[in-house]
Amino acid sequence: MRKIVVITVLIALISCQCTPHYFIENQRTGDPLVVSALVGETIDLEERDKFELFQGISNFREAKFYSSAGGGYEVHIETETQKLIARNRSSDEFLILREYIDSYEEIYESREEFEQKWEIVDYDDLGFPITMNEVNRHRGGQFSWLACLGFGGVIIGLSSVAAVGIAVGDVWPPNSTSPEEKEREKRTAAKVFVGGIMLGVLLGVLVGKNIKKSISEEEALKKVKEARKPSVVKYFSNKGVNDGK
Hints:
The chain is α+β, with helices and mostly antiparallel strands. The N and C termini lie far apart (about 55 Å). The protein contains 9 helices and 9 strands. The chain has helices spanning about 1-20, 45-50, 95-100, 105-110, 110-120, 130-140, 145-170, 180-215, 215-230; strands at about 30-35, 40-45, 60-70, 75-80, 80-90, 120-125, 130, 230-235, 240-245.
């Protein structure tokens, strides 16, 4: 009976840890953001050309920025024929864009200093900078400790449950085992608990290191650019607006 209880608890814990967690797609929240006092809430065609933004968007008309529920922001772009949305989950990107517009004249003369300040390594299809900080997040460096603690915690948790299950057998049912057997089970429970901690720490560190090294800088940069690509959500026509499929 004791073994059945322990196995049931272990299965339940594994099921909880292995259940996939799905991220909810960022939703637009609130009114348009003021990118800069120089442009207000909307970047129009003239401002697009002046600040060299959205150069990859044909027939550009205007763009507005909104905060996202999941962090970062999303930009809504309207052209003569389409409405597109591009998402950016970088916490620094909006500050960089604001400084870029506010100090455009100075930055235009010496872009290198601006890029060094923010550790800008490249630009996406819309002309927005990509920082090394964001590249590292896609490489897994920011999440290596989380993976380490999570994986190690699972191992330690399972070993703890197993140790408790063994120890519970010492007192229930009453008088079920001899004193010698009880002492032996206590030692076994202690070994399982200590061994689980050591194994959890070791495997957690190994998993954390492997995740951090699993993606190269070039691959991470490609992922950032791919994630930032705008997607069409509506088509405009003479007859009105049709939702994009």
